[in-house]
Amino acid sequence: MTSPDGVPAPVANVRRVLAALGAEDTVTMFDSKVPTAAAAAATLGCEVAAITNSLVFDVDGVPLLILASGAARVDTALVAARLGTGRIRRASPAYVLEHTGQEVGGVAPVGHPERIRTVLDESLKAHNLLWAGAGDHHSMFSITYNELKKITGAEEMPVR
User: Fold this and answer.
1) pTM of the model
2) Where do the H-state alpha helices sit in 32-141?
3) What is the pLDDT of residues 28-54, one digit of tens each?
4) What is the pLDDT of residues 74-104, one digit of tens each?
């Protein structure tokens, strides 16, 4: 589904949310898909570690969004211990779509039907500029760590 201006609906939604949160609209649309951190980094010419993966997990039926460096493998046991939750499980693609309105590989940190508890990987602080998914496989937006923390209301912590 696309918006009247031809932009995919999830991307248009992310743009609306960024504007509503006072963030700059830096969404970039690509001709080819960028569904992985490696593909995005190659397309953007940046380090994989500067790509912010929006990973959705299931914690006893409640979604948890972890914004992790593309170079990180999330230690779910560590995150669960820090949050004081039950076991954290990777969500299925259907679960991700249901809770974010976006497909795996294009999930943005914002623009979901309802607010999702969010964790922000502290290692992302090392980068002046981050890139995050903007709602589909062909788009991303740039943002600083502090701005990302502000617009998501995320809890900062190490995730690996």
Assistant:
1) 0.95
2) 37-44, 76-83, 93-100
3) 999 999 989 999 999 999 999 999 999
4) 999 999 999 999 999 999 999 999 999 999 9
**Domains recognised in the chain with CATH numbers:** 9-157 (3.90.960.10)
* Amino acid (one-letter) located at 12: A
* Residue 1 predicted with pLDDT over 70: no
Q: Please state, in angstroms and as integers, the Cα–Cα distance from residue 92 to each residue in 10, 62, 97, 103, 129, following that order.
A: 19, 13, 9, 10, 30
Both tokens of 132, joined, read 């995050």
Helix and strand numbers (H, E) in the chain are 5, 8
Instruction: Using DSSP, state whether 61 is helix, strand or coil.
Output: coil
> Which amino acid is present at 48?
V
Helix, strand, coil distribution of the chain in percent, nearest 5: 30, 25, 40
